[in-house]
Design brief:
heterodimer; A: flat; B: alpha/beta; 6-stranded mixed β-sheet
Chain lengths: 282, 270
């Protein structure tokens, strides 16, 4: 293959019709795409295989570290149990994500238009953010009870800060010449907000959404650790105390898959809404 | 030849109407941490309707500030600015002014056509009666096939053409250009210079063009206004009377070289 390419490049390139070269270029590109997809898959399979062999080889007990096959069996046999526990966690994470990000967008807008608000409240937000989630969680459980509310609140709080910081920056960092242009066009403050500032902030917002999509799930799980009867977090605690390690691993797999799917959804939305930016930055 | 004579020669009809731009003793001061900086010091200038004036000077001479006074982006600290017979504010509100920025300032999330249409979509639809067809303008700047493209897909020169089309879409009477071709390569710049002159002759728009290229200033302007720096003040106004339509080959003519030498001599004393 390499010989053909160099041969054509040296003196034969004029003899290859354009679409032939184009076809070859496309097939090369396709190969690269497949390589990028297959390589990580092969790595994961290899690691799982090593793990699978190591467990019986070194005589590791199942309750300390189960083999991947044992986890897979649990994933199938206890699928119903896993899903009934995923549902509350998913609801908490998604609601917390929406509330936290929504609040962050509103507060960022207020910050951009009223500097004094930012000067007054941003240091408070920074300090609040320095408190670890595991410390905030019990306080919220005391305040909001044992239901879904404290978990939603924790997920929301965890989402709030990254989005606030990014969104404030995105709304503010507008090209000054674009602002001068809007001034020359006598655009109203509302038009400047919707047609320039908001659009300008979208790439920043999506960066924050991608971070918070996974942290919202973590927030909900941490909330469930403090006190819950169902949910991924509750199942993690239960299976750990019961030494049901295969179930613990299966729960973690389900939680991670949900997190990844949520992240994937945001990436897909970004591709749809930020066509101009995704193409530009890739 | 004086400025007045030039305007008479070109457009006898507008003889008695007020000038497109008139500045009288315009001074602009900025307050910075190091104290007050005088960006413009008692500037006087007159651009006749349908005229093309180049503003030439070293960096820091306040060329861009001057353009922003005319566009009602910066208010003068003292002195009087008049645009199309009224205040700059009134001219801006009437959509008499089109502004072309140095970096094109296109909105990256809008396609080429959407960018060109922006002036028609904001500001409450003022000046719609003089609005021009965006597609026609894209044809005028040679980008009729690029309407659906996004700015990042275009070269620097194409982006600047889009921004010129955008500035023209509301049918402005005055076009303010702030070093629009400063970031472009020489070949593209030459081509756009020629196209801009053709466009000016076809539309009859008054143009005020800021540049720091002596060649560009001399090639484009009916007048070249030389500015000195720190504080920005008028050094000299030099009329340029090459007959139109000017072609880029004009630059090889001895008269052109003569003018450039003269402009350079004045600039060196700025």
């Amino acid at each position: 293959m390499a010989d053909v390419t160099t041969g054509a490049g040296a003196f034969g390139s004029t003899f290859i019709p354009d679409d032939e070269a184009h076809r070859r270029y496309l097939s090369q590109k396709q190969k690269l795409v497949w390589r990028r997809r297959l390589l990580p898959l092969i790595t994961i399979l290899a690691l799982l295989l090593i793990w699978e062999i190591s467990v019986p080889l070194f005589g590791i007990k199942s309750f300390i570290a189960p083999a991947p096959s044992a986890v897979a069996v649990v994933l199938v046999t206890k699928f119903g149990l896993l899903m009934t526990n995923l549902l509350p966690t998913a609801i908490e994470a998604v609601l917390g994500f929406m509330i936290g990000n929504g609040a962050a967008v509103l507060v960022a807008t207020a910050f951009v238009y009223k500097r004094t608000l930012e000067e007054a409240f941003f240091p408070v937000a920074v300090m609040f953010n320095t408190i670890p989630v595991v410390a905030k969680a019990p306080i919220l459980v005391l305040l909001l009870g044992n239901g879904m509310q404290p978990k939603i609140a924790i997920a929301a709080i965890i989402c709030f800060f990254p989005t606030l910081v990014n969104m404030t920056r995105g709304l503010r960092d507008v090209n000054p010449q674009q602002m001068e242009l809007m001034h020359v066009l006598s655009a109203s403050p509302r038009e400047i907000f919707t047609r320039v500032r908001l659009r300008n902030s979208l790439p920043y917002l999506f960066s924050a959404l991608k971070i918070t999509a996974s942290t919202a799930v973590i927030g909900a799980i941490v909330g469930e650790w403090i006190g819950a009867n169902s949910g991924i977090g509750a199942l993690i605690i239960q299976s750990t105390y019961n030494f049901d390690t295969p179930l613990l691993y299966a729960t973690i797999v389900v939680g991670s898959c949900f997190s990844a799917a949520f992240f994937g959804l945001i990436v897909w939305l970004e591709g749809r809404f930020l066509k101009w930016n995704v193409v530009a930055s890739s | 030849m004086s400025v007045a004579e030039l305007s008479v020669a070109r457009q006898p009809v507008v003889q008695n109407t007020p000038a497109a731009v008139q500045l009288e003793d315009v001074t602009v001061r900025f307050i910075t941490e190091r104290g007050t900086v005088t960006a413009l010091d008692r500037i006087n200038l007159t651009v006749p309707k349908g005229g093309f004036m180049s503003l030439l000077g070293p960096s820091g001479c306040g060329k861009s500030t001057l353009l922003r006074v005319v566009a009602d982006i910066i208010a003068p600290s003292s002195g009087r600015a008049e645009v199309m017979g009224g205040t700059p504010f009134a001219a801006r509100a009437r959509r008499d002014i089109g502004f072309v920025f140095q970096d094109a300032a296109l909105l990256p999330w809008r396609t080429v056509t959407e960018n060109v249409m922006l002036p028609l979509q904001v500001g409450g639809g003022i000046g719609m009666e003089s609005a021009r067809d965006p597609q026609e303008l894209l044809e005028l700047v040679g980008l009729s096939d690029w309407g659906k493209a996004y700015p990042h897909e275009l070269s620097g020169g194409m982006r600047q053409r889009v921004s010129i089309a955008r500035a023209l879409v509301s049918g402005p009477k005055l076009l303010l250009m702030d070093e629009p071709f400063g970031a472009l390569d020489e070949i593209t710049r030459d081509r756009l210079n020629e196209e801009l002159l053709a466009l000016w002759e076809r539309t009859g728009t008054t143009i005020l063009f800021v540049t720091h290229s002596i060649y560009e200033a001399a090639f484009l302007g009916q007048d070249v206004l030389l500015l000195a720096a720190r504080p920005g003040r008028v050094r000299e106004q030099v009329p340029v009377d090459f007959p139109g339509p000017r072609k880029i080959s004009l630059r090889e003519k001895p008269e052109f070289a003569c003018l450039v030498t003269r402009l350079r001599a004045v600039l060196e004393t700025c």
